[in-house]
Input
Amino acid sequence: MGGKSFFIDTSRCTACRGCQIACKEWHGLPATPTKQWGSHQNPKDLNFYTYKLVRFSEHEKRGKLVWYFFPDQCRHCIEPPCKDVADGYVKGAIVKDSETGAIIYNLELMKKVPFDEVREACPYNIPRQDEKTGMVAKCDMCIDRVKAGLLPMCVKTCPTGAMNFGERDEMLALAQKRLAEVKRKFPNAQLCDPEDVRVIYLVLDNPKLYHKFAIASVTPGITRKAALRKLLNPVGFLQTLG
Amino acid sequence: MTNHWIDIKNADVILIMGSNAAENHPISFKWVTEARKNGAILIHVDPRFTRTSAKADFYTRLRSGTDIAFLGGMINYILQKKKYFKEYVVEYTNASFIVNKKYGFKDGLFAGYDPKKRKYDKSYWAFELDRNGVPKRDKSLRHPRCVFQLLKKHYSRYTLDKVSKITGTPKEDLKKVYELYASTGRKDRSATLMYAMGWTQHTVGVQNIRAMCIIQLLLGNIGVAGGGINALRGESNVQGSTDHCLLFHIWPGYLKTPRASLKTLAEYNKKFTPKSPDPMSANWWQNYPKYSVSLLKAFFGDKATKANDFGYSWLPKLDDGQNAAWLILFDEMYKGNIKGFFAWGQNPACSGANADKNRKAMAKLDWMVNVNIFENETGSFWKGPDMDPKKIKTEVFFLPCAVSAEKEGSITNSGRWMQWRYKAANPPCGIKGDGEIMVELMNKIRKLYKKEKGVFPEPILNLNWPKEYNPHEIAKLINGYFMKDVTVKGKRFRKGEQVPSFAYLQDDGSTCSGNWLYCGSYTEKGNMAARRDKTQTEMQARIGLFPNWSWCWPVNRRILYNRASVDKHGRPWNPAKAVIRWTGSKWEGDVPDGGWPPLATGKGKYPFIMRKWGHGQIFGPGRADGPFPEHYEPLECPVKRNLMSSQRINPTVKLFETDADKWRSCDPRYPFVATTYRVTEHWQTGLLTRWQPWLVEAEPQLFVEMSEELAQLRGIKNGDKVVVESPRGKVTAVAIVTKRFKPFKILGQTVHQVGLPWCYGWVAPKDGGDSANLLTPSVGDPNTLIPETKAFMVNVRKR
Output
């Protein structure tokens, strides 16, 4: 399996949020109205105009305080369940780029795919809909940049080396190397679902302490609803599988 | 910075104190992270657990304003446990110097104090001199009046127990930090210190840094790779603007501003040119007249002649004893003594301590010129909160100007690198850059003087002033050139040729230089600051030194005091991270602090060449508030008395007396310690960033961070709107209730602390909130008058 991958080393992330802002800048996405709500995490959650969000979570463990930062984004799954859902409705609403493995949403076609099914299918709770237009959006791996030989914007802007991007085997090797290094100090350190996704996070502790959806909440692969659809409409499903 | 950004990666231990580097200097963390990857230990000491603490190997808390107690305890620990680097201390610092018999210290006061003037007579702190006029030394460090013994005695009072009671830091945490940091008092280890406004903005700001200098000198961490005292500047060009005399008390290159009683150039030069009878001391400032005369030649060109004292009398002088620092200027403005004001690239309505006093002060002006990029709280003060425009006479002119990316020129970063920047885009709508505005303005004034013959026209008309602004011409003048054909040190130079380095500057008018420190930055070889060449030797590569990338003052020396990184034979203390090395005939590595051979040859010089006696100053007799740092409480604090002495506050602090200068210490109405800070997402007062929707989205509103315990005490829930008030003002903020603040145990009492950023203002965004500086006191450090905005008292209540 080739293609590209991200390696996100949260041990190096300082939550400067350069990635969050640079993502918006490159994609020309507007700011969403926010209020201070008792946290530095803002906007509160991902939304139609926010593909990348640094999540903050503080915990006290045996009197020691930790503050974890998690730059959340689409994982570009190897076998994307959202695509399985979309394929049951409209061919081409979600495509997998054969060269990079990027999972790309077609904004117009996505209007025809029931959003709740897409969202439910995602093990990482990523896709977000614009209520007005019905369009659904998420991280596109800066596919335009990557095809032009450039790094994704979030990687380009990261000052500490937390965000990495490259060939999948290289990123996996880097992830394993860093994991071995940090394990000595942080025995609970782990990689989040490295075999299933193209955005591989290294965390120093239980992933749930970083974010509820840091690791897959449901088994990646085909969801119950998609399976049902397959049963009811095998032709359409087969068509989309092409 | 004595060192530079990349050099942080060479450290074995990094202490970040008085700084939140991860949030406010994000790029610095590239190198902190690199150091940690190489095995370095990162320690963060701060009242609040921040994003920096989140990355630290060890974090501990202290109450705002108690850093000297914390560091004093570390000095005591290093001395008691004999963790210091003895050879370095004996040879390179003034630890062995004998102090005269009049020196003393009693109950918080050093000898020579005048309580009426709130000032010291520093002659009480002088060194005892031998027959040749050189300080007496005892290299055994046993003499009871040698600096080392006085130091030991002074800091023996800073016991773990006392320090913990003052700072609120648990004793075991203190010990842990001391142990980790003191582990670098060896040849093969180094530790660096990163500080910022968390240390400077106190009534003991200078002494906070002095305390750390003492520690770094004791451990032999100055001059070495991965060492130093590293000030993280608040803006990318703070270093450059300070070098070029942004402040009132200095001329470019840290020459002194003349005083009215110094009537002639000869008197001026004599006063500020130190004499050292010690042949081993380079005493670099002995060259003072060469730099001052070259500066005058840069100011007045051919009009400056020996006969007219090179135009010395044309320049403005401060009155004797006059201080014209920021706090004083606004105090005078508030009292109605200032008529006009240029607010250039600044926003004092939000940035200055006691911001409401500043806002009211501006209403006493006849006119104000506000040069900035966006509308801001300063230019619009007259329509701000609690202002009645009808009653304000101040006429405000707003000059929009270009932003940094729309201008060509240099920026000098914290590591003293002068980096040339190209213009990325033209400013819109014919808007001008600052340089263009200044040149045009002065040319207009000159025209009027010519036409209308004003009083004392010489300084205006004789000024060496260009017709049009050209950054290259200015940079060349700052470097300096020869004013006539001349031979210096056996080398012939033609008139108009660029001076290759400050070693060639002259005091006879044959050279000009707008800033001697920058001599060498724009030479016949071209614009050195524009260099982007990564070539380096293997030795330089080991410590990340890039001598051909941009240019660094002085003379492209990347690590200051680097002669202290080698022993008397020129051998590096730590060969694996050598900064310089004597090959037997020359130095290699970095540019050494002077080219003399090592000390052991008998032809060498002491390494601290800018000091009169050539030694690192553990004993610092030049400061206003004492030769050793001593703990005093902030002007506003939660304790009735200072545990260290009966002097509660710094005895040399200047107290302002207008009705706007209110302060309350230990007052039940203001029971909580407060501090201010910045956030990653906003720049200074937010003047630039508050108009940037993506940044406002990320940090939309003024917040106040507080502990869960304090929130419970006041019935405040996370996200509630609260009022924070001090004797000077109040702001509305959103509460962030967090585990990252914890109550302190101070002298057995529970003390709460809160913190809030100062990056908001009423102009934009709507509902963003106002500046936290409405709360801070206008009181400053006695040496610098930098205001104490990092420790004061407030009340917090639910709105």
